[in-house]
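INFO worker-7 received task bundle
INFO bundle size: 2
INFO processing item 0
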Amino acid sequence: MCGIVAYVGPKQAYPILINGLKKLEYRGYDSAGIALLNSSLNVYKTKGKVSELENFVKDVDLRGTIGIAHTRWATHGEPNQANAHPHYSQSREIALIHNGIIENYGLLRKELETRGYTFQSTTDTEVLTNLIEDIKNNEHVSLFDAVRIALNQVIGAYAIVVISYDDPDTLIAARKGSPLVIGIGKDDYYVASDATPIIEYTKNVVYLDDEEVALIQRSSDLKIKTIRNQEKTPYVQQLEMNLTALEKGGYEHFMLKEIYEQPFSIKDSMRGRLHTELGTVSLGGIVDFEPKILAASRIIIVACGTSWHAGLVGEYLFEDLARIPVEVEYASEFRYRNPVINESDVVIAISQSGETADTLAAIELAKSKGATILGICNVVGSSIARATHGGSYTHAGPEIGVASTKAFTAQVTLLTLMALRMASLKGTLSRTRYMQILHALELIPEKVAQTLILSKKTVYEVAEKFKDVRNFLYLGRGYNFPVALEGALKLKEISYIHAEGYPAAEMKHGPIALIDEDMPVVFIATNKGTYDKVVSNIQEVKARKGQVIAIVTEGDTIVKGMADYIIEIPETEEMLVPLLATIPLQKLSYHIAVMRGCNVDQPRNLAKSVTVE
């Protein structure tokens, strides 16, 4: 959500900035803008897409070797040109871009108004811009110190980059609660909200930590201080992603590419961790915390959205395989309900981006209570990776589509490995059973590839049939209940069709009232666990003329004789079914969205990385 790009160096800034904004379009946004410093400080911004910004500035002087750019996802104030970033200060000598929310902006605005400031927007960001100018002018300090002092008065989250007419060789960057990375080139600097706009120019980066402010000057070394004026030594890291991972590779959409990457992303998430020849699972990031997990009174999983669904699968895995009690919490609720957290608890925080604001807040709460915090995320150097005591990366590779696909299956893969490792250490599975599951897990990438082939024709037919319906119902039991939730979420996210996921048995406790000949019902009805019960649920839907779409195990004959549409997946162990059953549901959502003319990779109102509460 929201994107930041900035540049200072010998090159022309505009091509770098506009290219960077295009790389960040996946994050979700509703307006875009740019500020360039040449003979004056010029801000150009507009509602809509980056392409509209390009058209807006096609006849203006875009020369300049220093600049900032932004894509905005509206929080304070509606999406329009006035509220778009960058924001000028009142004198128009300072411009600022901002991700996050300034919670006390109302009080700050009133104070500035008493000092004669007027505002052109309804944003919290313009307030911060004028606060910096006020401090710079009245306390007679440098731009760097004005930013640092101003941030001591701010309550909330921010990632900001500031540019000033009076400092034509300087960018000031700072963060708290929203990610910001600085790329170090040969004789230039790049700043962005994530590494995607930077990777084609340099792999040397510095990730700012909370309450750090960076002084970025042309032809000078990078300097970092905290907002309390404590000097910090920049820690330079190497980016691991490559540029081809950020391209569509011949696919029509990033989402489709990422669906088809899952055989590889799952395998990469197991690589070096699953050793079937030795009969072992090793997770280096949690090895020091294994005694804590084994002794834990319970595991608490905190996450949001798709990651929360992966956490639900994790609950089944840890309790089923390792016999460790698990609670799965929405991170957004966890921090506000005064939860009981003990030092004997282990908290697992799951996030694709590693920047989810609610999950970070849940981590800080749990840490304050003495719990051990482990993270599962996909982005090296992200805030969650730094805030947790330990954890593991999923190695899914960059996920550009807003609707998460390969990140979900990578998270479930990693949770499966963790649960198996704990089961091995606790001895809760016989050696024979343990090895059966290990071998089945090793075959999952191949079976995902098979699923992509098996589901291709039928999924497209189902999408054509139901693309214009207004409601969908998804039902599953046991391990497949979270799959039903995730399938419904995918359809909502990208096609804007209302969909709900339920435990199949709960259908009789309300949702059955919705069943008629116009209601498509998706059942995850694989031949494991409570298969016979799910068959009964299908009969109940058919008795009310509902239209049944069933995900079944290859070769199934019972459900095939009942359902209107059958989508087959290969046979596997019950606890591994989510890794296969979710694939056709992702494809169904994708095809329906395309047929409805929806923007698949950038669905309305959504953002890839939710960095505000």
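INFO item 0 finished
INFO processing item 1
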Amino acid sequence: MGYIPKKTLEDLEYDEVLKRCSDFSITSLGKVEIMNLHPKTQTHEIIKGLSEVSEFRASFDNENRIPNHGFESMLDVFSILKIENSVLEISSFRILATNTETTNNLLNFFFKFKSYYPNLYERSSVLSEEKEIKTKVDSVIDRFGEIRNNASDNLFKIRKKIQVIRGKISSSFNKALSQFQSAEYLDDIRESIIDNRRVLAVKAMYRRKVKGTIMGSSKTGSIVFIEPEATYNQNQELHNLLFEESEEIKKILSGLTDFFRPYLPYFELQQNFLLQIDIIHAKAKYAQEINAILPAINTKERNINYLKAYHPLLLQANRIEGKETYPQDLCLDSKNRIIIISGPNAGGKSITLKTMGILQLMLQSSMLIPVHEKSYSCLFDQILTDIGDNQSIENHLSTYSYRLKNMKSFLKKCNSNTLFLIDEFGTGSDPDLGGALAEVILEDFYEREAFGLITTHYSNLKILATELPAMSNANMQFDSKTLEPVFKLILGEAGSSFTFEVAQKNGLPFNLINRAKKKIESGKVRFDKTIAKLQKDRSQFLKTSKNLKEKEIKAAREESRMAEINAKLKSKLSSYQELFDHNQRMITLGNKINEIAERFFINNKKRPLISELFKLVETENSKRKRNSIILAKKDKQEKKKINEEVKKELIKVRKEKKQKAKEPLTAPISNHIFKIGDQVRMFDGRSVGSIDSIEKNKAIVNYGAFTTKVNLDLLEFVNEKNK
């Protein structure tokens, strides 16, 4: 059973991520539960949780929105229901009814759309729809939170009597009010309310003339408040009826509590379901906030490939400040288990380390992560970290001693199911001695087949990464001109610390920098200078490549535009030429018709006119036929010419192929050992196929539509078999 220590959570600011996520919870219980989340190591639980969050996240972008899941805590209700003869309050019954109604809505929704939300439906299937709970509560308590008159026969009778007696009280008081008002015994305000009872405002001088109970007086003593005698007696009767009513209500609520007591296990299951839905909702909302997705999870192999990965806390902080956040591409697999990241300080090494760690913790807490949709990941039993200056004042430990204790713990726990993240590995001691110790510890991690990211400035660790096949160097790209970080991880090469360059940029005197250079080994300076030069060359190459690519795209667009313009111009010229020729023919024909018409006007003879017109028509028809024959011949000649050109090209291509066939095939030397299922292609070809079988240095390659036998020397490795 794996375990992720508390220190890892602290180093990677896991609690801060939980706090951001809990802000999206709509219940207080949900917020508390999210803050108590801990990354899991059970693959099935993690994948199921991730699938549920992904489904909820998808519901925000479609029409089938998941209904409201808000609920009120029933923990107090549970504790009361467990006590025999206890009675719930009216508000508690209303909570039970409301929560049950919410649950029923969710159950019906997930059943209806189980094809959309299969995992959420599976979670809801542990509960059944309960209609009787709300019906029972509604039959006793109305929507205003009052006990209904018909909750029991006895209550109905008591309230009927209360209604009658209140009518009598009102009638007798109004009678006394009218009587003493006409006798002018009352003050201008006439009446008042004391202890929820109507009283007469009697002038002090007439208080003995009004029969009743004195309930009080004004501050000045000029008014005495008296409840009439008849009203007083009726109020006493009302008081007795109200007591009977409260006793009957207690009896009704007690019976209702006893009815719901057997439902306690259901209510506990129901609250847990609603709580989990709230947690899933909060995770989905947080995922929407940071544009997170569910990457593919590889359960068979240890493979991590986070493309365009963002640190969620940094992403939110930069968004608030209007700053740009730079994504990282992070890749670990069986052939590249450990990456040594080097480069200058403030270049983003620690952030890269923390990005990998926090994304892995989030994933194993069933939280979606902000990466590209083509990313994939795996799960670890242990995630160990050593990040930051961890001096222990309480135990009187230095930074280096504390880190050595951490390494001791790492060495006990590290195995093939471990991901370790170490920042500034080996620091805190003599560089040579500390570097040597760091090297042997790293070799031990390597032999245990653990996965990890390490940041360092030690050259011996960079060299070690070039010597071990499943370990590689990486560096944080740095602009060599401005000496500003680019926040881009470059795999495959070590990074220079740019120590002297940064010192120079920060204004340190040249003579001090030169003296410092003389104090260290010349070989180390050359090594660091070579690395720095490689980084500069790479940076320049990338810029040049980008510029050339942009120019190439621009030239291609311009060429396409010019070709389009040229085609349009040719089309227009051809159209104008045809129009011109047509107009010329029409003018000639018109002139001839005009001449025939003039002759007709002179001699006024129809027969010559018709004869000449027929001749003109026949001439024009013969011309058109001749032109169409000429055009057909031209088309035929053009087609023949094109065919001849094509034949010449074919002959030329065939000759070239024959010549190539005679030449011996040479393939680039590859150290790769081919396996069945590997994706390959001919070294001079483009089509990619997979190896079906291998025998006697030859492979049967399947291209989908056909298979072919090829020498292994002529094949180029493309990708490993997916498991």
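INFO item 1 finished
INFO post-check item 1: Residues 448 and 586 are 96 Å apart (CA to CA).
INFO post-check item 1: The chain has five domains: 19-148+260-293, 151-253, 304-519, 561-662, 679-719.
INFO worker-7 idle
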